[in-house]
Amino acid sequence: MTPAFSPFLPVLLLLLIALGVGAAILLVSGKLLPGLLKPDNPQAAKLTPYECGAPPRQQGARHRYSVKFYLVAMLFILFDVEAAFLLPWAVQYRTHLWTFWAMLSFLATLLVGYIYVWGKGALDWER
Amino acid sequence: MAGINLDDSVMTTRLDSVINWARRNSLWPLPFGTACCAIEFMSMMASRYDFSRFGAEALRFSPRQSDMLLVLGTVTNKQAPVLRQIYAQMAEPKWVVAVGVCASSGGMYRTYATLQGIDRVVPVDVYVPGCPPRPETMIHGVMELQKKISRESLSARKEHIERFYQSMARQEELQRAKGLTSYQVVREMVLEAGAAGGQQIW
Amino acid sequence: MVIERIEAQLPGAILEHHAFRGDETIIVAGARFLEVVDLIFGEGYQLLLDVTAVDLETPEYRFEVVYHWLNLASQARLRIKVPLAEGAAQPSLVSRFKSADWAEREVYDLFGIPFEGHPNLTRLLMWEDFPGHPLRKDFPLDGGDLFCSQDIGASFAPEARSLNA
After folding, report:
1. ipTM for the complex?
2. DSSP H or E run through B30
């Protein structure tokens, strides 16, 4: 039996007011007042990146960085998804015994992968 | 080229006076310190003379975060385009104080290497003489700048800075057209201005 | 002391030597210069403090390239001067002393003395296309350039100059 109006309606109202007030403050202080007071003069010379006055040495700010970061991010995703699967299982594994062994076989598969990664030295930051 | 037009009958509005009050009491300096005047500037910032009384506590060495360029010391011809670039990268409104005789006119260096006054390449608002000027003299210079700020209108300052950007655009164009380095272009522009009777390229 | 040892091992290398209040100076001909440098390196003079030059314009040679060394162990200093004719090149010491790198670039920039074997002999203080070598005696103080004069406008058109310029 649904109620006449949801008990969460005040929360929605609060959210809308908060967003509205926030947007109003940002608009006034970010657009209205600066529009009146701030000198706005975007010039080509002004927008060049600051390099102590010298002409820019390289195109853009793209630096080369080590592939280690990519590796760490990828391994994180894998094991984080594994942990995410563990959470609902942990709540109800006691209902049936075979769910325990099913999850354990899943973990064993990933364990093999983990040992391989460890052995290969991918977890070793210094290398 | 004349300096900023203060003698024209530009009526400053009440908004102008409020804004100018805020601007003159919160001048954040960018110390472009190249030589001995920078040492005197350090004394000025220290506790005995205490420049932060004038709202200049926030010393920023970045053009993006400051509004008063204090050129402290000798600027060489090699440094001239760098000075122009730094001034160009400052956020508006901005003012320039030439501290010391080297920045004002080349000082005792009438040589091949020294720029004979930074007003050849950037618009200067106040010149502070001295070699080096005492901290009190520099403070007096900034107080004169504050008086100047209270007299000017917002639009006059805008137009004054706009003229500089036109000269930057011209410098860019000359560099591309003739394929010269920035120092040579600045030199050409100064000589060209000299042929027209002045020596300021902004 | 070291001068005697140089004389003993490389006779004829030292053209002249003098000392003033403990400051020892030897004048070495360009041809024997590298041998003398290697010898004093062995003697302990392993810190090259400075490389500079003087434009003398004597009838025999134009420049004198001046080197300063410090013996860190004995704290003794040695100055070596090498007379150089105009246009002649001086061997670079960059392979032996890293401090010679910019010092020789400075000498090249300001005097025009080329150093053979320098990895990057370009101007250091003046800008890349600066005409001339400033510390030569025949280089005028203002570079012979109208740009450096105080009042360019007046030079061009004295009567047209307005007070607002």
Report:
1. 0.77
2. strand B29-33
